[in-house]
Batch of 2 targets.
Target 1
Amino acid sequence: MAIGRRELLGLAGGAAVGGALSPVPWKLLDDSAIWTQNWSWTPTPVRGPVTEKFGLCTLCAAGCGVKARCGSAGVFGVAPAAEHATGGGALCPVVYGAHQLPYHPRRLRTAIVNGHAVETKEAIAEVARRLEAAGAKAAILDERPGRIVSALYDRIARAKGGTVVTLAQVEDRSLRTMEDLAGMGPGTLGYDFEHAALILSVGAPLLDSWGSTGRMSRLWSRRVETGKPVFVHAGSHWSRTAQLADRALILRPGSEAALVAALAGKLAIEPAAEITGLSPASLSDLALRLREQAPALVVGGGEAASSGLPEATERMIAALNVAIGALGRAGGIVMRRPLTGAPQPPQYLDRVPDHSLDLLVHEASSAGIVAPEALLRRKLAAKGTLVRLSAFLPEAFGPNDVLIPSTTFLEGAEDARGARDAAVETWSYSDGLSSVPASALPPAEFAAQLAEALQVKVESYEELRKARAAAIVAAKRGHVYRHAGGERAEATDLEKFEAAMAEGAVWVDEPVEPGPLRAKIDAVDWSAGRPEQPSLIAVASSPRGSLSVLPAVPLASKLDRETRLYAVPGEVRMNPRTARELNLRPGDSVLVSTPFGETRGRVRCDAAAIPGQLELGACGDGSQLVLEAMGAAEPGAGPTQAAQIRRS
Amino acid sequence: MSATQKTSRTPRRYGMVIDLDRCTGCGACVIACAAENNVAPGAARENDRNSISLLRVFTLNNPTAAGRRTAFLPMMCMQCEHETPCVTVCPQQAVELDVLSGIVEQMPQRCLGCRYCMTACPYHARSFNWGDPSWPAGMEATLNPAVAPRMRGVVEKCDFCQSRLHAAQDAAAVNGSLDPGIYTPACVEACPTQAITFGDWNDPEGALAKSGETFAWLEGLGTQPKVRYRSGQNWLHEMAERGGAAPAKEERHG
Amino acid sequence: MADMAWVPTTMLDRKFVPRGVTRCTPARFSLWLTPWCLLLGLGLWAAYLCLRDGLLHTNMDNRFAFGLWIFLDLAIIAFGGGAFFSGVLLYFFKLKELNAVIRSAVLIGFLCYSGAVTVLAIDVGQPLRAWFTFWHPNAHSMLTEVTFCITLYLCVLAVEYLPVLLRNRQFRKIPSFLVFEWELHKLIPVLAGIGAFLSFFHQGSLGGLYGVLRGRPFAFRESFGIWPTTFFLFVLSAMAVGPSFLLIMTRVAEWVTRKRLVLESVYVRLARVSGWMLTFYVLLKSIDTMVWLNSTSRRGGFLPWEYYSWEPFGVWILFVEIGLFGFVPALWLMRAGKVNTSWLIAPALLACAGVALNRYVLTVQTLSLATLPFDEFLSYTPSWQEVAVFGGVVAYGVIVYSVLYRYTRLFPQEQER
């Protein structure tokens, strides 16, 4: 048969029709659609049974209770532990993504000495050598004092003549001044916000990065129902707390002292009004309300991303509290019993003389504590060693630094003493819910190995924990809150106590009956200077728990870059009018300099920003430069800084 | 199935009342939502306009001198009840209003990625996967096993944590019931000030019915959103009653 | 050696060039095509990037979910509307002058539609699932209507154009092609009818896309039955601007080829039709705008002045669209025959600009305006990939048009100058 054009055409046509009637094209279509749903590069979650376990948030010292959802691949979700004494069924925003921290790309997987990767054993031996050599010029920086491991640090430091130090977080700052004036030891006072009728925050970030989120959140929520407490905020910029407060007074930067002096009646209203830029009427009204809306309470501390108010101002705030009767009163500043079995509280790092240390061992295993790099460095002598136990590679490290990989969120055994500002002490512990990576040392293990290398004899972590549990039970105080069933039990039986604690329960001390306390306020200097008025100020903020030497949790970009709820790292947010006055356009690269440092960023205009203010994001990468520029290493530098800006 | 078991049930109309006076804009709901729903951490290119944001919190500034200066407005899919704008426009039925739950369901496997639903949504509650979702190495271990990560090129949105609804349905089925009851979406669980109340609008005894006077945004459009708000602040009510946005004098040059 | 290589090409080229017309040398023709091919290559590269990595190569975002591509799609589909409308005029209203441009019109229609479909295939996030619309169609969606119509109409246009292609002298040597062409030719009026119907619905449903957006009060319009007014306005505007676009393209082809391709009377006819339709469209558009401003929008809680208080989209845009790009060209085009014909390209351009502006306003302004009272006005600038993909589609159109002009008789009245 001859094959001609007609036949070929017929074949083609027949093939087309036949093909369409066959399953082939339809199967192909179907398969292609299925393929688009199952790309190999889109990960598939590991299926399996899901359990809920209670653990402990270690991002800061407060140690809130978390409920972790665990699948066969590990923890996949975090929820608050309802009614937890510290967390109160609330957590900081970043905690909800903290279970991803163990997989952060900046996870430290090897020890580093002088810039070289070494075995962890070697690194610890090196630390031991340098610690021995430094003698009294060595210090261990314990970010979360009062833990079991703190006792180990205390033992090690004292055996070698060194000291243990800690950082004054924002909620510490006013309390420690008050403790000084009242002649009481560190950690003996707390705030009784729950019974207060009016809370005046002098620049304190009560509603964003303060203490335990749960406590403030419950208070805030209750306020909607009962109208109490009334939040009044007096600060030099429109912080989130100022924006949310029932009443906000925006002062001239640096004039907090004048405000406090006027409220205490030590400075006449008119000059105070002139210095602060407030109206005399609002000042006298506030002074009156502080006395009439009892119990009232004044809180200082400044922003978290700063070193806080000058010590002199803090002393005035303490004296004002005494003057309005807040000290020792329910709804004021109350005494709390030191945690049974806890070691001597450490001294504050910012009070250590500059360049006086040859070695600083920084236990940075919690990812959310503000530890300004510049503050740490300035305490070290030239060629001093900074040892860091950290789960992540820091942004920068010096040539003499030693880095030892640690555990992070929900990994390894940890315990927590509770929030610094709480009215009572709490204690809880957890053996960790995620597996510990081979390279990482939990703090207790680090301390044990260090003690061994130094040939300091210490008890094991377990022994110490048991001893503390026994001491608490023996003291017969407080109660144990168990999440399962939400029940409270007396802490009278050691076995039951330990069984409950192992499940994630929290022990809560009894409050001390409020009674009058005395403080030496005669020595307080009430002179309030007249600060110079900068035309431009810089302020920094970030969600609580994300402002630290360590990288932010990966999902934190949802809070700044993706929602603009917080200032975005790498951006300088300003009002369009300010930008016009400075002759800047959105997207311009700029250099912001303050008396303490400088940081780069891109201009972002936002009509919601306050004219004359430059808002800097201090979350994750680049936050150290922002902290430095904000004077976080300079004691009492104030919550805002005079700033200059230029194109770079 | 035994004869006593119910084979049908009263439809639920899940919804929310969000108390704006309680919200401090901390953003816990935003992160909890992203973690629950397997939203990948934002790539460096992602911002407030192109990231996957099933739930966002807007910052509202009080234009009047009276009252608080700022309020924070959590906004997710409003689960519109009437003429749901996104349901009617989808060419291939990838969006459906579930009659049993009142939830507007999005099926990423069905989605073509035409984004017509995104232009249709007055609340901008929908996100498109502009690229492949990606997690740093090893972080896949933190994925919620009950939620499938979405592929690139599809639209997604809040579905009131559908996987939790399914879990509630399963739990109910074990007890011989078809009614999942009131479950807890991730944002509700995470909110530290309990600003979000989740419930059933069909339940006259439920938490939503008891939440007092509420308002919705863009009510004039007539889509009957099932996420409603509460506030004692007048300026918020006034703002919500206004549609669209007239620019402040300062920003007329968009 | 180089010359030797040209010989067979030239010979082959000659064989395909229609009898009775002259064409430039293959070298010259290649030179003309080169930049367009480069642009097409760039477009293909950009399209490949978008298909490989996803649409993160574009500057579209969750708020600007439609961008340059959708706007230009709408515009070129409106311009391509000349194809169906010329068919209607020629086969149903017996305007025989249009025989002179009908092949070109159908080709332009085909190029516009196929180009638009190509861009859409890149614009959607999951092109492989495009057929889902046929499998799980949502009868309530305007986009379903669009998809069905555009697919079917593209087929119709291809069939409509096939006879022109088959009339090439080389193809005519094949007897079965000749028979096929002849049979097809008898079908053309029927096809034109089906095409007109499909295209009518397609143009309309594209307009309907916006008119049904209850959530976008700037675009939302009153409805007749299931169709919002934009449905009808899009149909009318496409009818009005189609002939104008044809006029422009023919004029441009004359300039490029330096030949007379059609008689002057054809221009006059196109212009008049365009003018009348435009007048009708602009009148209805004005009424629609008044109803929308005073009733529809207010009912949704939106005060119309709010839309126009954001720069750069002030009230001027409304006046430019309806006045400068509407009534002015309408009146001018209606006077065709009484005014200089060679100037008619100006009002035709204005009319096209008006319809493009209308599509721009509905796509871009709709998305840039805030619906939530606290929201910001948004702007968007397309990325190079978006521009390149679109440039590639234009290049595709130019290349195919040029090649078919060269090898088939697009203009029966073509004569040497």
Target 2
Amino acid sequence: MAIYNLPPLTNEKFADPDVTGVWEPSGRLDDMADSLVIAAEEVNIDGLKSLPDPWARPLLFSQALTTKGHVAANDARAQWRGLIALLALRNFFRDSYILQLVNYDLDDMSLGNPGFRRMLRQLMPHETISREADWSKMGVITFQATSEDVFATGEPKAIGMMVPNCLVAPARGARKIIHADIPWMREGLDDPIRCEGMSGDHWVALHNYLGKLFLHLNQPGLPEEAKFIRDQIKAFAEDCKARMAEASAAPYDLEYEAVTDVLPNSFYAPLNNIPKQPDISRGPKSQALLKLRTREDGQDLAKDIASGIILIDPDFADRTLGRPAQDIRIWGNYTLRDAETPNILAKIAEDAAREGYAVITSDALLTHKLTSINNDGRVDAHMKEWANFLLPISPAALLLLGRENLNNQLRLIDKGDAYEVQLDLDVIPGSPREPAMTHTVIRRYSKKDGMMSKGINEDLIFWPNISNADWPWTFMRYSFNPNYDMRPRFAVSGKSLAAMIEVRAKDSHSGGISLLRDLASPNDLVAERGDAFFAGDMGEIKDGDGNLIMHRTAFADLQTAVGEQHILGKGAEALFFAATSDEQGEQVPAGCILLPKNTRPTQQGELHVAVDFGTTNTVVYASAGRDAEPVNFANRVVKPFSHMGAENDVFALDCVEFFPAHEQESPFPTVMKRRKFDIQGASSVQRLASFPYHGMADMIFFMPETEQKLKETLKMMEGDNLVFQLKWDTDPKVRRMVKRFLRQLILMSSVEAMDKGYLPENIKWHFSYPQAWRNTQAHDFKSSATQAWKEIMGPICGPKAQAKDYLHFETEGAAALRYFINGAEHAGQAGSMVAMFDIGGGTTEIALFKDEQTIWRSSFRIAGGHFFTRFLANNHEIFDEMGDSEFGQAMDKYGAGKSMQDMVELQVSQTDFNAKFDQSYTMFSDTDIGKGLRYSAATALAGMFYYTGLVLRKCLSDGVISKQDVHDITVAFAGRGASFYRQLGDVQDADSYLGQLSAIISDVALVSSGDAESDNGWSPSSARLTGLFSSQPKHEVANGMLCDPLDISRTRVTNATPLGEYVTMVQDGTSTEMQSTAAIEKIDKDARLDMLGDAEFLNFIELLKLRLGLNIAVDSKNGVAKREIDNKARRELNRNLSDLARDLDDEDTEDTQEIEPPFISKLRALVEILSKPVEERKEMLVVKHGDPRW
Amino acid sequence: MDIIIGVGGTGAKVVEAAVQLATIGIGPTELRVGFVDQDKSNGNLNRAQYALSNYIEARSAWRGPEGSHKLHGSEDCPILRTNIETIDGGSGLWVPDERSGSTLSSIFGAMQEDNYLFDALFETGKVEKDEEQDMPLDEGYRGRPHLGAAAISARANSGSGFWDAITEAIKSVGSGSRVNIMIAGSVFGGTGAAGFPTLARIIRDRLREEKISSNVHIGGVLMLPYFGFPDPDEDENQNVARANEQLMQSRGALRHYENMLSSQHIFDQLYLIGWSPFFVMDYHQPGAGDQRNPALLPEMLAATAVHKFFTAPAAPDAEGVQQINVSARANERALSWPDIPAMGTNGSREFHEKFGQFLRFAAAFKYWKAHLDDDSSRKAVHKQAWYKAQGLDQLDWQNNSPSENITRLDLVVDDFIRWCAAMEAYARKDANFTFNLWNVMGMVKGVDFKRPNQDAEVAISLSDDDYAQFFESVVSKHGTSDDPMPDSAELADGLTEDSFEDEHDGMGSMIAALYTYSSVKEV
């Protein structure tokens, strides 16, 4: 068979020879080429070097692209497509590369290398797919890798050419140009279709661009050869379309822009008309955008501080979206695949931060290690599976999931040798039409080396256990042994995190994003390191409105104990811990425990809260328009981790230091406890009081409910840590303490209100004060209360809220009177004429009421503290009589001077004291001590009755009341100080001790009217007095403030306060005599006492003898007692007058008592003597007791 | 004027083949020969130059103006008929850049603004296989024809005797003469592949510059793969791979030619020659002097193409038409004289006659020459009839000895025998191939396939028996039915009976007689 004298050929295209032995015309050379028998299927086009032409490179590409079965077709197509993709996607990868076009006009010999140009021109090809373009004018495309650092930007390299035969041809070394950020150049220029890492947007843009190229080559009149290139473009476009489908990318309207390069020929124009990056508003910025938590107003929690959080998790691709990583747009044109490269990830994060987006990796949401809790017990707020584990999340996770969702969306699965933690996160759908997605971040913790076992410090509490969403006062207190325990980092809520980030983002997004990312550090305490808040003994972060986000105070910093108190202005959902890493030996994030949910639904409505800030006890009442009820402070201490030692004494005492850890009923002692600090270098402690927050310097002393409470209390007293007598102390330090006392009351009362469903901003506050206060005292008190309210309620009610709209003040007497007149308890029991005696610890409020009108009211500083508590303090054997020998012994050991009375006051304040006293009183009432107590108490009450009689006498003379009124007086007793008088019988029982006592009122009132027959000046009255005791002594004022909406407090008919004793005043050398019924208000502030009479006081002593058989010989013992009584009364009057002159500028608008009646001063002095230790008293005067004369 | 330019090693071998045909009397009257090779130490080039030199020397001795022993005319004794000269009067070799260590970069000099374009077309790299711009060109273009094309084109424009001669030849058409320029090269490899089309394009470019549109014909002999050789360290499979690589390169080049020739008029006639199955050689030595490959049959076919181009130019109405020619043989596994592509009508027979006659002449020359080498030899035969009949006794062996002429002729005869021996040996190496052209192996000392760069050693003389045998068998008949060729006795009779003393001078008469009675046909 004939055969060509040629290399081996197939005969498919090149027919067998017809003749032999001659030269005959050949068939087409390309057919011959195709017929060559070649074993190799495919080769790399760069290995083909057969073209004897300096233009071999573009010619070879044209050949490979247009020849079916070309051995280098695949490789040529790959590079050619890669080059087209570079041109098309310039805008998408502008951060990675720049293309520039260098034009060459080979006819121009004035530039470049003439020899080179001449050679190229001489051997210039003629192949073209354009009628316009020839090879003399072509372009070289250069590629330059870009970088933010201009010095790190690569040199431009020739990567391709614009040539007439195939539009573009890769340059000789194109394959060697590698760029890790460009998916189809990671191993040199390649076909994008066969590379991973391109996004759906990339495919859409490339497809669209190719479409335009196709149309360009589909114009009529183009050479036939254009068809082959056109077909290649079409095939490329079809492949892109398939990738679009894989990426679930839909076509969208692309904007194009023309690159400004000058082109070698207009034929190439479509190559330089390139798609713009898609409008970011077309969809979410990222397809891995996590749904942030939702605020109550429906907005994203972090809307103001982060436009979004982008999650980088390789599993996101297949597991959640079912797409390859390169088809998931992470940011701009960057894909999830891009983000696998650390430097690109950093760039993505940086770019995103500029627009307010945070980029975090899945690692950043979960801690490096899983921490199990090795204490006995459990975390109460955790699901069962997590009960003994810290949740291995970073704080940033709280921006995504709240407490409830964490419990549902964070799973712990035991996989045998490891625990698997799964965290479900909501992903924002790409469009509203797409369903919501959930992505699960999964991390496995090897039980061998992926875990830590640590103990939670047991001294860890929060307060309160309820609140509403906007409650700004959440407290955390903890202490731990740094040698053993994990260390609490901070307690946060999503809201507080957002606020902190917002503060950081105030000047730029990046600051906030930076913090957010710090909070997401899985294995380092980045958030704390270098942050001023965590440095030193205290720190504070406030939001843009000045509201507190977080306050931190260290109260102990010892080798074996570190303690801090945090105030969490935006609530707390979780407490994050750090633990010492076994491997690194450094503190690393250990996860968090969830705190119990403490929000309560609120209901509309106003709540009135009344505070009776008493001398020894304070009472708080609340009313929502119905019956007022005492506010009992529940134990609102939260211990998130239950353990066996939770109830031990140490814990209880520790809590006392903070907030009461057991229920506290009203009333409770008006006592403050100073806070102790164990800070090395206490300079910062001095600043504590300057912070307007509770718990910094001191707090209300709630007696601990422990077996050792007395002992512990006495220890505190011994250390001068308890402060009594707040109400009357004028020391500025104590006045500030009063403010803090009231502040704590407001704080705690608000929490109780919230527990009942009331919003704190809907609370109206009522405060009482004794009329016995001078104007300045009342003013100070009101200022303190106002300031306290502002400090607590300011963040709640807002800066525009006016205190006057929320705060109401009235005198204790007025309030107590309302209690009797309008209170539900005594409704209808009182007659038309009432004389009320609210006998407290420090003052007695006296009010006269007739026919729904207050006709007179005042208060005096003579009360239970004077005649009862002081007596018990001075004669503490009485506690032995009461069977409370422990207290008696304690008094023996610790009691001394004033502190002894404070101790007694605490004891008396105990809820069970009254019952104990009542039970035992009869047992010792006839002993010297028992008698002494009765004399003291009876004298005090008799004195006040006597003075009240003087007032009534004046009212009678003024015609305000009638004699009949005096005959029909209801004597109402209120206050803890009145309790004792229950032991003395009934008012209406004329034969009883109290009946006799009460008659003194009418005895005195009626004496000048002629109704009383004098026996030694006196005669018994025949009035039918009735008595009325409050069932809840001490509650009357607080209750009374809420009893009736009618404001009767200032409806006084008689303003006059009788002197009670004859005086001669001197002013400017002129003496003025004033009768005992003269009003003290008539005394000029510039006048001074000249002479103090004693007629009324002696009449009073006489009446005691007549009515009670009590003979107080004030002149006995050489008149020691009488001198002391007189002197005290004189000093008091003069001091009052001096203070009045000094406080001239004060507006006299307060319902106060500027000058104490001299009679009252004498009475108090007498009672004080009677309250002394019995033996001591006997040294000053003689008291005898016989039968009453009447 | 006919010009042949061998480009690269394979091109040189085609030129060598053309020279061998001229030795036996097949060729134009005048021929200018040139070589283009960047690697001037190329073994193939050197051997072609050697053959050319021997030819020129022999022809000068026998047909030049000097001396007393001449051959005249070309009818009865056409050997050495063609007046071959180098194109430039020197070596005929153009080395595009003779500077040592020359590179493409150094050829062009600083690129200035053309740097990116240079990079786009020619690779630069740190490793040799990637390097193109700065690759030393001392050993050629190393399989990178695009690089060679650029270098050749650049240097062609820089002036040289070679190109001046071509330009002069082109210009000579103005006086009405015709110029045929045949370029021979390979489609594979470096220099030849690069220079083959490039030279043609440059010449065509110059024609345009000179505004010459007729009477200059450019022909091309393009050698396609026809042999294979392994690297010394490579196994047989690698050999196949290398052959495939050549084929792939060829495929690309052929497509390129198709594209190029379809859009540009470059060649008037183009001859493509290859072989299947490949001749297999046992080694490969790239570049330098050891690239000296044995002659192979396709080169002889190429020489026939050259001759055809020179002797059968395109008709005037075919100006501008590019004719591409191929040839075929009747049997893949055999080659006989009728398979040799005709140079004209009945060409293969004519070719057979001249080829066969010269081979028989060569055998006779080797035999008879031995009788004339020295006085003692001559003394032994000086009384024989043939000696007297050829007038040898009339020669002045002392003062006008024909020895120099005989030596010159002996050299070209040996060259030819070696050339034939190589073609024959490699054809017969394939046991499945039937070589029906000649059999010169008895006249050479074998061919060492292990050392193919070594030429076969031709016997100095032949014994009576060998001569008788060789003379009758050295060449095959054209056709099996052809009459038997005259034997050596007939030649001896002829020498005794016939003399060409009137037509040739001195020893020329004896040589012409030997040649005449070596005819494959009855004289």
